[in-house]
Amino acid sequence: MYSLFVLCMFVVAVTAQTTTSSLTIIDYLTARRSTNLLNLIQQAGLTDTLKGSGPYTLFAPPESDLANLDTTDKAKLAALLKYHVANGQYKRADFYNEMSLTTLQPSSELRVNVYLAKGIITVEGQTVQSSDVVMSNGIVHLIRGVMTPPTGTVLDVVTKDANLTTLASVIKTASLETFFQDQKPITLFAPTDAAFNKLGSATVQALITDPALLKSILQYHVVPGTIYRASYHTSYLHTFEEADRIRLHQFLFFSYEADSGSMVGDELSATNGVVQVIDEVLIPNSLSAQVKALTAGTTTAV
Predict the structure, then answer these.
(1) Of the candidates 287, 295, 292, 300, which has an alpha carbon nearest to the alpha carbon of residue 259?
(2) Start-end ranges of CATH 2.30.180.10 in the chain?
């Protein structure tokens, strides 16, 4: 009973305080009984690293999320774990919006976002939940979920997604491929193929014949900055279409909207931003009359 009391007091002490102790990151995880994370760190060959001098910043996902990870591919597992460790020691006060952190995984950086309106910090979209936990060789931040390294630009995310084939096609028609590769950081609200079907084949085909209008419609779906769902509250944001603002809204607890489009599936991180998949094609007010005029006298049924 006494040993259990001492262990509990240790966890409370290192969790609550922000001054460096002689204990390492591995010591902290052991005391906290982060069994799943410790096992994965060992399998990934990172135990000695996180016992070493560092300094490192570890972003530790919940134990429940780690229990479901596939550990059959050891190289993939090691890459994932290394992605959760940044070189250097970063407290919450050190973070700023759109900050990039180098990680132990070569050529993979972590994007930090600070959303002042909601008073939260995210790393690759995962909310940082804890106060600073400083050890002798670095710092630990508890985060809401497992982070997945982005594997390409916003354009790459779109072209690889089987549900976004129409969007990929009209991006090419509007000559926006370079924009979605090079512009950063951006958030794309990406209509699915079903969303384009809902808009109607006549309207879609008419837009394809008017690349300038199509370009403006697509640019309305893009917001400067990386806007993860954790930051959402009712707000009106400038888009690259410029004349109109897009309305972001969180409905209840887990439903998110951009104008009238509901977000579906997971948010998809990219090297230059994030893709939020939505179930409608959004038409800004300033362009709605032009879009309707395209199909005047014809049916928009699919």
Answers:
(1) 287
(2) 2-142, 154-294
Q: What is the mean pLDDT of residues 268-296?
A: 93
* Burial class of residue 285 (count of CB atoms within 10 Å of its CB; 0-12, 13-18, 19+): exposed
- Residue 206, classed as helix, strand or coil, is helix
271 and 252 in contact (C-beta within 8 Å)? no
CA separation for the pair 293, 287 (Å, rounded):
10
Return the structure tokens found at 267. 């948010």
State the fold for domain 2-142.
FAS1 domain (2.30.180)
Q: How confident is the model at residue 83 (pLDDT cuts 50, 70, 90)?
A: very high
Tens digit of each residue's pLDDT (9 = 90 or more) over 122-167: 999 999 997 788 999 999 999 999 999 998 999 999 999 999 999 9
Between CA 196 and CA 13 the distance in angstroms is 55
The band of 298, judged by pLDDT with boundaries at 50, 70 and 90, is low
Contacts of residue 33, defined as CB under 8 A and 6 or more positions apart, other chains included, come to none
- Give the mean model confidence (pLDDT) for residues 64-90: 93
Q: With beta carbons less than 8 A apart as the criterion, state whether 122 and 228 touch.
A: yes
CA 277 to chain CA mean position, Å? 12
Architecture of domain 154-294 in this structure: Roll (2.30)
